[in-house]
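Hi,

Apologies if this is the wrong queue. I'm a grad student, and the batch job for Methyltransferase domain-containing protein from Apiospora arundinis produced an output file that my downstream script rejects. I'm not sure whether the problem is my script or the file. Here is the sequence I used:
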Amino acid sequence: MTSMQLRAVTTTTTTTTIICTTPIPFSTPLLNSICLATKSKTATPSPSLRSFLPTPPLFSSTSIPTGYTMAPDALGDANRKFWDERAGALFQEDWVKVLSKQLRDCLVSSVEFMGIRKSSPGGPSTKLIDYACGNGVVSHALFDNFDVIRGVDISDGMVTAYNDLAASLGIPPTRMRAAQGNLLDPATPLDDPDLYDADAIIMSMALHHTGDPQKIMAKMAERVRSGGVVVAIDWVTSDTDGAHKHSAAHGHHTTSKHSFNSEEMSELFAGAGCDKESFGFRTYHETSHIPEHITNTKGGVDRTFFIAKANKL
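Support response: The file is valid. Your script probably expects a header line. Output copied below for reference.
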């Protein structure tokens, strides 16, 4: 990573203009404080962890500190610093906890839809890459389906939280661990062999914060074996998209696109080298409420997220 370069821009008492001159890389889901008071740090996990694993929130943002703009190639460093410092307090909010549970339920109920085969004794090893992993919502939701799970996140703080949570549950690093990195940053090549030839790679709630969704999808597909599945979870396009904005209290969110529809996702998967015939797209059955102080919309906004998948050719 290059060192962070920031320069002040003109502000008013309520707004700040942010100018970004570079493609915006993916950002990280955020970590809620995790209470493990009832779990021993030396505990051995049961055969199925899903019954007791915490459900930390999974939400992502490319907020940068108010009053600053990014010089070329610096956004990744700003994201990394920003969320290392501020993730915990913001995402203790109730609406994020609800969203996290919805995402977890979506993943668990979509195993067949994604075409993920469950690992079996004596069978071939299965591997998941949890991209923009945060502290591991995706990884823990699908723990029983993979022999090897590798997380990747832009934030050192999220990587630490991911690895600490796994260790507290007695999960060895050979089974599950995370590394800091960014597939859109050549300075973090992520050349560990464990980060290739995956059966599945999943990115949840981060695609709408990328400056180049097509490029990140292609980079993700490069990490999957032929026939493996690429999965994205994000917001579905609605009539209210673009009508709300995030609160300045949480910094300015440099989103390039608020949401996606089925046709857009199909094109992104095809452009990433996935089989068009294997493409699938479905929406979650509940809406997710984002409150007024986040959206700056009176009464808040109800959003629906989707899960989309396709197999690499």
